[in-house]
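Readers of this paper often ask what the protein records in our data store actually look like. Such a record has a labelled line for the sequence and another for the backbone structure tokens. Nothing more is needed to write down the fold, since each code stands for a local backbone conformation. The remainder of this section carries one protein's record, kept here as part of the documentation.
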Amino acid sequence: MPPQYVKAYVKRNKNDAADAEAICEAVKRPSMRFVTVKTAEQQSALLMHRGRELLVRQRTMLANALRGHLAEFGLIAAQGLHKVAGLIAIVRDVEDERVPDMARQVLRLIAEQIAELDTRIAAIEAQIMAWHKSNPMSQRLATIPGIGPIIATAITATVAEPGEFHGGREFAAWLGLVPRQNSTGGKTSLGGISKRGDSYLRRLLVNGAHAVLLRSKAGKTDPWLIALRGRRPRLVVAVALANKTARIAWAIMRKQESYRFAAAAA
């Protein structure tokens, strides 16, 4: 059971006896939701994603540190990880007099750490790709526009049983991709997305939606997207597309089928 659902049944102070009593009370509720236990293979796949996310975060920290330190010497680079390569080339160039030798020694260590993290991230991504090619469900999910091997393997490893959700909307709500409600007195009030559930999957789906809007031909020819972009801001459109992608992913997992482009166009 999710701990946030059991917490409501803890009467007073938190201790082992109160927790056990709350669990016994919560498990009797007919509307209680239960979490399906993941297999060892799914947990291993999630571990690869967690390790990759940690290394990417460390690489971003080092890249920002390198950019900030070199900015003190008047060396400015545009935002983006691919722009850091020019700064690393400056640090490694001994003949470049714009960087003092004493500072270059420290900056070179940071550059080496970035290069080492690039190698480790590539190795983990190779493992994720190998698991993706051996998993039929992950390959089916990768046929959806906006979902690649990284997102497909993350969904496959996270969702142990798609039948737990009554529909695609419930799956999207579980990911926090639906409006947050604050309704009372019969008056419906909807705000921004709830941002509940798995933040990692939600971020991946939104990033995939941005990629579809920027680069995919399907994003430029879909009548639904064209109409939505005409009346909504770009970020709102990306979240709406991520919501739609999550619903399609649930349907594919539930029906064990691949994405059909013809049906989507119709």
Summary: Residues 101-134 form the longest helix (34 residues). The chain has a mean pLDDT of 90.
